[in-house]
Amino acid sequence: MPMFVQTGSAAATEEPARLLSSPISQIYHDIENHDINDTDEIHASSFSYSNLRQSHSRVNTVIYPPKDQIPDVNSPQVKAWVAEIDWSKVPNIPVAPGLQEIPHFPQCPPDDQLDLSTCWWSCAGCVAESDVVTCPNKNTWGLTYDDGPSLASRDMMYYLKEKNLTATFFIVGSRVLEYPDILKEEVAQGHHIAMHTWSHSGLTTLTNHQIVAEIKWSEKIIRDVTGLTMKYVRPPYGDIDNRVREILRQMGYTIVIWSAGWDTNDWRMLQNQIQEWEIVKSFESHLGTRDNITSSVGKPGGPVTLEHDLTNATVSLSKRLIPMAMEKGLTPMNLAHCLSDITPYQHGSKLGSNGALEKVTDGEGKGSFRGMPGMEEQDFKSTLTNSATTMTTATVFWWGILGLALLTSTTLGL
Ligand SMILES: [Zn+2]
């Protein structure tokens, strides 16, 4: 049985790496959040959610790598994690070059120089059999949001709770340093939490050891805050090849990308490259093609979309797309529900009967907790600390990066 399936033509024409989610989205995310509120105290911005606590837990930042940077691979922790991998099974595929302007955004070689055997999704549109790109059942919709937690995540959660829906949030470890409480609230409300690396770098541009560091540090901070060990991972920009796949597989991860053509491109709104109405129109026409989606076993399936809980703009867009799709018969749900995966974490939780996630004792002394829509968050003995260490805003740094990014975005066509 071939291990990988080439589906390059459809995916490559619709979502080549040059058109994938931009690292700039992450930058906007930081800046917008700090513009809303430049302190660690969270205030409601444009919505009211009385159930959410206003207090803000702090993470002991000293024990984690600096945010938004690829973690040091020479630390004892990373060396120990690296030693757990059987490197003889990892394909010897060269580390991909990054763009000069944005170093860890993958630079695709010319088409005639592409090695298709590496199954590089972001440059060749190759999907492995084990990659999740669709929901297996017709009219189901895998609702996913990337790059949080952010302040906008709360508004998203508020809306989903109103609709009695749950989603999968792909979490960036660096954001957990800033908003641990929002991550906890996502878990408390029965949402499914998954991995989106530490610094949001293109994984094919990283060395083997850097990939391990990216995943394991993010895994650790999410586990420290929630007691849950992730099982699903979405590589930033969908940037994955067989080398990255094998490393992630050995760390216990299932890879999720998204359905070809179902990237909402919401991140482009943040760069004024597209208007909300254009996305709504495009989404509506895609809804008409949903019957063409086939699952991994060749039966009619449902889409897995790509959205971002980054800003009020992307959240507001999502609030328009959800009712539109539901009216056409799609049922939004988190990925665990869409995949009928009753054990959607490596440790610590199970799929509840209503499709929301329930936290259970995971054998690691984390206590028990049931997170269901409508229930208040409870103390589940996370290892959050109240360290006096405060988080830095890094505003100056990010404005500098934004300038560089804006300068290059036109050239790159991102
Ligand atoms: Zn992302």
Automatic annotation (TrEMBL):
GO terms for cellular component: membrane. InterPro entries: Glyco_hydro/deAcase_b/a-brl, NODB_dom, Polysacc_deacetylase_ArnD. One of its GO terms (molecular function) is chitin deacetylase activity. Keywords: Hydrolase, Metal-binding. One of its GO terms (biological process) is carbohydrate metabolic process. Residues 139-333 form the NodB homology domain. PANTHER family: CHITIN DEACETYLASE 1-RELATED, GLYCOSYL TRANSFERASE-RELATED. This is Chitin deacetylase. The gene is CDA2_8.
